[in-house]
Amino acid sequence: MQGWIEGFQESIDYIEENLSEALDIEKVAGKAALSPFYYQRIFGALCGMTVGDYVRARRMTLAAQRLTGTEEKVIDVALAYGYDSPDSFAKAFSRFHGITPSQAREPGANLRSLAPMHIKLTMEGGNMLEYSIVEKAPFTIVGLKRQFNSDTSYQEIPRFWEEWMQQGEKRPIMGTFGVCIDTVGKNFDYWIADLYFPWEEIPEGCETRVIPGSLWAQFPCTLKTLQDVNTKIWSEWLPALKGYQLAGDYDVEVYLPAKDSSGEMQIAIWVPLKKA
């Protein structure tokens, strides 16, 4: 576990050393020996914010320190942190601090500050997380896909589901799966999908995609515990995992009808693995 945490801390140190440069998520994730897809998932679980939010907050923290501690021009500070105009910098600064850059230089100005992250995990007993590891053959999904950005996906994906739900009986698919796949930098595709069989017609507006065969760690949960289980996977289960490592840049949410009279939907999160 220690090596895993050290690698993640190295990635945060790299961010800190390059806050005045354009950061490439591929390089940042590479410092932790992770794909951008998994790095951003794990960062959110460990740090409670997206990579983009962390970078913006740190840049605005340092920008405020330079404005209050030096006589540099606002445009020079803006350029130092990747903003090509005083207006765009002022808008970002005001969103974070609640005041303009010029107001920040006034005596007694209230400013916000985010200190650099330092990752330290202490694994303790008492938190039960049920899971199983199974092998599955390749399978094909059919469904609706939309591209999302990791910085806003937690807000936008539920809206995607809401739009799908509002279609009522006109929905072209049942919505058995939610699949994150095909990551390019901070962007990835999210599918609302069902199993596809070759003798079936592809509904209008839908596409198909083959999900590779793999070992899968399967985590059962409920609608109420979905986010909590997802956080525990990346912040507790993965750092303690031995004998396996992550495989592929995708994961799957499974939504199945209730088995009994409780009416509670069966939900699971699937994470692809390979033996280390």
CATH superfamily of the largest domain, called what?
A: Regulatory factor, effector binding domain
Query: What gap, in angstroms, lies between the N and C termini?
Result: 14 Å
Give the overall average pLDDT: 87
Q: Can you tell me the residue ranges where pLDDT is under 50 for at least 5 consecutive residues?
A: none
The CATH architecture of the largest domain is: Alpha-Beta Barrel
What is the strand tally? 9
Order of helices and strands: HHHHHHHEEHEEEEHEEE
| Protein structure class | alpha+beta
Total number of domains: 2
CATH structural class of the largest domain: Alpha Beta
Main β sheet profile: 9 strands, antiparallel
| Beta strand % | 15-25%
Notes on the protein architecture:
The protein has 276 residues and is α+β, with helices and mostly antiparallel strands. It folds into two domains: 2-104, Homeodomain-like (Arc Repressor Mutant, subunit A, Orthogonal Bundle), CATH 1.10.10.60; 132-275, Regulatory factor, effector binding domain (Multidrug-efflux Transporter 1 Regulator Bmrr, Chain A, Alpha-Beta Barrel). It has helices at 2-17, 25-31, 36-47, 51-69, 74-80, 86-97, 101-104, 153-166, 226-240; strands at 132-136, 139-149, 177-184, 187-195, 207-211, 214-221, 244-246, 251-256, 266-275. Strands 1, 2, 3, 4, 5, 6, 7, 8 and 9 form a nine-stranded antiparallel beta sheet that branches. Helix 2 (25-31) packs across helix 3. It is elongated.
